[in-house]
Amino acid sequence: MSEKRVIIIGSGMGGLSCGVVLAKNGYRVTVLEQALQTGGCLQSFTRRGEKFDTGMHFVGSAAKGQLLDKLLRYLEVSDHIQLSPLDTSGYDVISLEGHHFRFANGREAFIEELCRDFPHQRRQLSDYYDLIEKVAGASSLHALKDAESDRAINTEFQLRSINNVIDQVITDPLLANVLVGSLPLYAAEKDKTPFATHAFIMDFYNQSAYRIVGGSNRIANSMKRTIEQYGGEVLTRHKVTKIVCDDQKATGVEVNGETFIPADYVISDAHPMRTLELLDTKLIRPAFRSRINAMPQTVSNFSVYLHFKENSVPYMNNNFYQYNYGTPWGCEHYNEEDWPKGYLYMHFCDEVAPRYARTGVILSYMYMKDVERWKGTSVGRRGADYEAFKQEKAEKLLRSLEQQFPGICQNIEHYYTSTPLTYLDYTGTEGGSMYGIAKDITLGAAARVPHKTKVPNVYQTGQNINSHGILGVLVGTIVTCSEFLTAKTIYEQIVKANI
Predict the structure, then answer these.
(1) Which DSSP letter does residue 483 get?
(2) Measuring CA to CA, which residue among 224, 166, 227 is closest to residue 195?
(3) In a 10 Å sphere around its CB, with 0-12 CB exposed, 13-18 middle and 19+ buried, how is residue 151 labelled?
């Protein structure tokens, strides 16, 4: 084992996966988590004996030999989780203008399914699908190579908005709206979010789509186990309160305001604003701090977790996106009267392809400003007015759900809610944002967060470094860990792990 010690701040997907990669390569890894439970957005919680996922609800490209499958095998996760496939003929269902449109897995099925409603758009759908594959394939990760496959394509579609590209390819306005129907998965904004983000997400799920049986925290538990197997440690209730630096580099971290732990390297899986708050050093220039602090954040959410009566709700083997105002765009711009403009509804599974659902969730956009007056209070102690606020919002969402699924409310045994404050408490993201810093083509390079800081041995990882979601975070992990091992070494190890 190397004598080099790496301290990783935070045990989300980025922190744990960096820990696995480095521990497998001989570094002395210590992951420090301030909460009681590891996992970040992989966390699950249990109420009245039922389990609910908080962030990662389903994954893509996980069929044998596909990209996520290869990465999970490299991280030694595959043997510890079980996946339940979503409906291949419609893993996502988009509800717009009173009609339901389905996304099917695979090129031909995807095109044929949408041609049922848009037969005149066959050529356009073919061009769209080919463009998705072209943009996603331009990434070195898709080819598991250490060199970028096509820099020109990557650059072009990082600088063009989703709607700009789709409107040039698709001539039917309704179909153009349908194709962005899953945008809550990345909180896309019109004229701002790059088409590349859309392409990566669509390609990821078009390959295959699965739910994680028993909850996404099983991924976190597996990676924790692997880190420990290779001699590392994952410590909960260890809040890093300072990254200690001398004039040249970081020397370690301060934990819980008192204990110093020395380190040769520090990797932060925290939100970049939180990381900068830990770095009281002249090595970080004020201009850089100002740029990071000024970056726009993605919207947060309001969630209603549903506990169904036994054997009352057939398991829904797809994700359901409802839009109440004829378009997926602009749902983040709401007021008291028109909220919710849309929502995402899905079920959880505790076995492969269950007959009945035991639990589910409804997710809708919400900003921190809506709950700002309770900021600073603690979970379970926010007061009666906060509980009344949550109840009012939950009932509005449930009424909207009832319109699409008549009778569903009478089959709900219990429900639980979370707000942007809840998300802030459990993830530490600025404003409780779902996906951290927003991708915005109008900001150019100013919208990018570097994985290397100006402190030579302090690095960043997680959803803000490359992109959010399990695949985006793992790309960021490879980028960060390549500073220790080189990208070529990591790609070779991934390939070897899948022989």
Answers:
(1) H
(2) 166
(3) exposed
Q: What is the DSSP letter of 159?
A: S
Instruction: Residue 147: count other Cβ atoms within 10 Å of its Cβ.
Output: 10
**In 256-341, beta strands by DSSP E:** 259-262, 265-268, 300-308, 319-323
Per DSSP, the three-state class of 458 is strand
Cα dihedral 258, 259, 265, 268 sign: negative
State yes or no: pLDDT of 354 exceeds 60. Answer: yes
pTM of full prediction above 0.90: yes
CA distance 63 to 207: 8
Averaged pLDDT score across all residues of the chain: 93
Instruction: Give the C-alpha separation, 444 to 441, whole Å.
Output: 5
Helix (H, G, I), strand (E, B) or coil at 63: coil
Name the CA dihedral angle for 258, 261, 266, 269, rounded to a multiple of 10 degrees.
-50
> What sign results for the dihedral spanned by CA atoms 245, 17, 474, 319?
negative
The pair of structure tokens assigned to 289 is: 């701090």
User: What's the confidence (pLDDT) of residue 393?
Assistant: 97
Phi, psi of 254 (to 5 degrees): -100, 130
* Range list of H helices, 211-297: 217-229, 272-278, 286-294
How many CB atoms neighbour CB 225 within 10 A? 14
pLDDT at residue number 426: 79
DSSP 214: T
Provide the terminal-to-terminal Cα distance of the chain, rounded to the nearest Å: 25
The alpha carbon of residue 457 and the mean position of all alpha carbons in its chain are separated, in whole angstroms, by 27
The pLDDT of residue 303 is: 96
Contact 149, 140 (CB under 8 A): yes
Q: What's the confidence (pLDDT) of residue 369?
A: 94
Residue 427, exposed/middle/buried by CB under 10 A (0-12, 13-18, 19+)?
Answer: buried
Q: Is 162 helix (H, G, I), strand (E, B) or coil?
A: helix
The identity of residue 37, as a single letter, is Q
**What is the pLDDT at residue 151?**
63
Are 434 and 271 in contact by the 8 Å Cβ rule? The answer is no
Question: Which amino acid is residue 398, in one-letter code?
Answer: L
Average pLDDT rounded to a whole number, residues 18-22: 97
Q: State how far the Cα of 370 lies from the Cα of 165, in Å rounded to an integer.
A: 33
At 142, the pLDDT band (50, 70, 90 cuts) reads low
Query: pLDDT over 70 for what percent of the chain?
Result: 97
Q: Which residue has the tokens 């906060």?
A: 386
Q: pLDDT of 186-214, one tens digit each?
A: 999 999 999 999 999 999 999 999 999 99
Does the pLDDT of residue 152 top 70, yes or no?
no
Residue 362, pLDDT > 90, answer yes
β-pairing, 44-47 vs 5-9, is: unpaired
477 near 491, Cβ under 8 Å?
no
